[in-house]
From TrEMBL:
<feature type="modified residue" description="Phosphohistidine">
    <location>
        <position position="64"/>
    </location>
</feature>
<dbReference type="InterPro" id="IPR008207">
    <property type="entry name" value="Sig_transdc_His_kin_Hpt_dom"/>
</dbReference>
<feature type="domain" description="HPt">
    <location>
        <begin position="25"/>
        <end position="126"/>
    </location>
</feature>
<protein>
    <recommendedName>
        <fullName>HPt domain-containing protein</fullName>
    </recommendedName>
</protein>
<dbReference type="InterPro" id="IPR036641">
    <property type="entry name" value="HPT_dom_sf"/>
</dbReference>
<dbReference type="Pfam" id="PF01627">
    <property type="entry name" value="Hpt"/>
</dbReference>
<keyword id="KW-0597">Phosphoprotein</keyword>
Length: 126
């Protein structure tokens, strides 16, 4: 199984799956999306700073936290990439490998945040 290929094939945001786990509680999901946007909007910059400072262990912990939070809102692609970065850092990856993964994560984060905004707006208008 190729984790990267699997992550790339996932939707940016699987609202249906997330709502299923929340027993259809749309207002709770809207709240979770807002909290995610607030708490993780600049996570890529924080990860980059930790890596620049040589704190791979703390960066791995933050990637782990992002992985779980993204999974809870149905952002499977972002969760998969965060998990890949976490594993890479836990395995003492070379700096250029971590930088490559972080660049991919940044792209997925930006796209996911945009999709989260659109989804929250659609749900709020219902």
């Amino acid at each position: 199984m190729n984790d990267r290929r699997d992550a790339e094939q996932m939707p940016l945001l699987d609202m249906r799956e997330a709502l299923e786990h929340l027993s259809g509680k749309t207002q709770l999901y809207i709240h979770m999306l807002a909290v995610f946007r607030k708490e993780y909007a600049d996570v890529d910059a924080h990860l980059e700073e930790l890596l620049r400072e040589g704190d791979g262990a703390q960066a791995a912990r933050l990637a782990h936290k992002l992985k779980g939070a993204a999974a809870h809102i149905g952002a499977g692609r972002l969760s998969g990439l965060a998990g890949e970065l976490e594993r890479s850092l836990a395995g003492n990856a070379r700096h250029d490998d971590a930088a490559r993964l972080l660049a991919q994560l940044k792209t997925a984060l930006m796209a996911s945040l945009e999709e989260i905004g659109r989804t929250a707006e659609r749900l709020t208008q219902r």
